[in-house]
Specification:
The chain is an alpha/beta fold and 241 residues long. It has 2 domains: 168 residues, Vaccinia Virus protein VP39 (Rossmann fold), CATH 3.40.50.150; 55 residues, S-adenosyl-L-methionine-dependent methyltransferases (N-terminal domain of TfIIb, Single Sheet), CATH 2.20.25. Helices cover 29% and strands 34% of the residues. It contains 7 helices and 11 strands. A 7-stranded mixed beta sheet has the order 3-2-1-4-5-11-10, with helices on both faces. It has a 4-stranded antiparallel beta sheet with strand order 6-7-8-9. Strand 10 and strand 11 form a beta hairpin. The relative contact order is 0.15. The model has no long low-confidence stretch (mean pLDDT 93).
Length: 241
């Protein structure tokens, strides 16, 4: 199987610039502070490491983890360029193994949408086991409404000078198949073409909460993106006690 996000490895933050990473990261930091979370964390699905870097700049000791070696290569380069010393690990949230427990785990920007519904409890149980006794697990999902009614049966694209892409979304049982084609400009002016396919699942809020409780989390809170409505993105805060 081709590496996930191979073509996107060096372009992920660039293509997601409209997410307003600065505001998003400040929201996460405010949540960590208000929750009383400790200083050690693991940022799963870290991509190019924007949030990992933001956590460390704020004084937390956070490692990044991603399933894509290409993503991690860029994450290490960006951290080094900013003078941030942190570890980036290759790993899969559904097979999570860590050396030592952390105070909090984050999985931001759709990481859990890649987890099959029948693997949610097992995945959340692994996160539970990796946390200290007072630990917190924070993550978000693209809502089922977004998956089914905004992404599915739609095509998106961008024509840039150095990278262009086409993104087709096909409804499947339980979610959406994303077929992406990228055209990346080389130094000689020619373009390389890359293709990737991703599957995201449409999880209902109630099903996520039930899976978290089954995994052992004592308290679960939810809200929309940046504290707003839950129409397109839902945040989950799961506490061990």
């Amino acid at each position: 199987m081709a590496e996930s996000y191979f073509a996107l490895g060096g372009w992920f933050e660039y293509l997601n610039a409209d997410c307003d990473y600065e505001t998003w990261s400040q929201y996460l930091l405010n949540k960590l502070k208000s929750s009383g979370a400790g200083q050690t964390g693991l940022d799963i699905g870290c991509g190019n490491g924007y949030f990992t870097r933001a956590f460390n700049r704020a004084g937390y000791s956070v490692s990044g983890m991603d399933i894509s070696p290409s993503m991690l290569t860029v994450a290490r380069e960006k951290a080094a360029k900013e003078g941030i010393r942190c570890e980036f690990l290759l790993g899969d949230i559904t097979k999570l193994k860590v050396c030592g427990k952390v105070n909090f785990i984050t999985a931001v920007n759709d990481c859990i949408n890649y987890v099959r519904p029948d693997a949610l409890v097992r995945t959340f149980s692994k996160a539970y086991s990796a946390l200290t006794s007072d630990g917190m697990f924070f993550f978000d999902i693209s809502s089922a409404n977004k998956i089914r009614n905004i992404l599915a049966d739609n095509m998106f694209g961008e024509d840039g000078e150095d990278i262009s892409y086409l993104w087709f979304n096909t409804p499947i049982e339980g979610g959406v198949r994303m077929d992406l084609t990228f055209f990346v400009r080389r130094a000689d002016g020619a373009y390389d073409r890359f293709e990737e396919t991703h599957i995201q699942y449409a999880h209902e809020e109630a099903d996520i909460v039930a899976a978290l409780r089954q995994a052992g989390f004592a308290r679960v809170e939810t809200e929309g993106h940046l504290g707003g409505e839950k129409t397109e993105r839902i945040n989950f805060f799961a506490y061990k006690r």
